[in-house]
Write a structure and sequence with these properties.
alpha/beta, TIM Barrel, 8-stranded parallel barrel, 12 helices, 48% helix, binds orotidine-5'-monophosphate, lyase
Length: 238
């Protein structure tokens, strides 16, 4: 995969016309767009449908986490809207992840469209070891938990995982080269971390095994978002 195809821009803005403007400017520079709760809760499936029309990857990042039948219904809706990647929380467990994988396959087959990839969110990149232990109540290291959840996702038939780049090498090694790895928590050298805690640069993330990197604020808040995206792509080898 070329560097350009690896970059997914998180369209974390409130304004739909700004999101469309950014997508139009960036469509030739990046591999895809991510619609998260910030935009989806305002615009709905129309956001996914519009971005799909640009011919790039569309990552519907709604981090589904509920009982299996409810998650299956959410996955069917996002599949019908045209998402090419959908995420669910690994913490929802085995039955929930299996239901998500089955729902994506069944709905895509019913509609005669390509099956979206379903990936598991592991340990949020905004958590550090201390928060995981003391606030969330999980006593293992972030690496151990991310690895355990990625392996569970694979066992449940999911296509990949979302994890911090710091965990990428271990997950790729354990889950194999075909297990898709998406890493947010990516910052170009010197960029503010914001609320991210477990971060690496774009080059380091890809070096560690990330198939896709997700970048939001370093591009969205740049004076020139196209230039910022181009710089990241350049750092990945073009
Ligand atoms: O699932 C995600 O995309 C996700 C998982 C995670 O652990 N951390 C994480 O930051 N994200 C998303 O990735 C994006 C990162 O944005 P920036 O921190 O602005 O680059 C945001 O849209 C987050 O919602």
């Amino acid at each position: 995969m070329r560097g350009k195809e690896r970059l997914i821009v998180a369209l974390d803005v409130d304004d739909w016309s700004r999101a469309r403007e950014l997508a139009g400017l960036l469509r030739g520079v990046v591999g895809g767009f991510k619609v998260g709760m910030r935009l989806y809760y305002r615009v709905g499936p129309a956001a996914v449908e519009f971005l799909r029309g640009l011919g790039r990857e569309v990552f519907a990042d709604l981090k589904l986490h509920d009982i299996p039948s409810t998650v299956a219904g959410g996955v069917r809706a996002l599949t019908a809207a045209g998402a090419s990647i959908i995420n669910v929380h690994a913490a929802g467990g085995r039955a929930m992840m299996r239901a998500a994988a089955e729902a994506a396959a069944a709905e895509a087959a019913r509609l005669g469209i390509p099956r979206p990839k379903v990936v598991a969110v592991t340990v949020l990149t905004s958590l550090d070891e201390q928060a995981l232990r003391e606030e969330v109540g999980i006593p293992e290291s972030t690496l151990a938990v991310a690895l355990r959840w990625a392996l569970l996702a694979k066992e449940c038939g999911l296509d990949g995982a979302v994890a911090a780049p710091l965990e990428a090498a271990a997950i790729k090694k354990a889950c194999g080269p075909d297990f898709l790895l998406i890493t947010p928590g990516v910052r170009p050298p010197g960029a503010p971390l914001g609320d991210q805690r477990r971060v690496m640069t774009p080059g380091e993330a890809v070096q560690a095994g990330a198939d896709y990197i997700v970048v939001g604020r370093p591009i969205l808040q740049a004076a020139d978002p196209v230039r910022a995206a181009e710089e990241i792509v350049k750092s990945l080898g073009g």
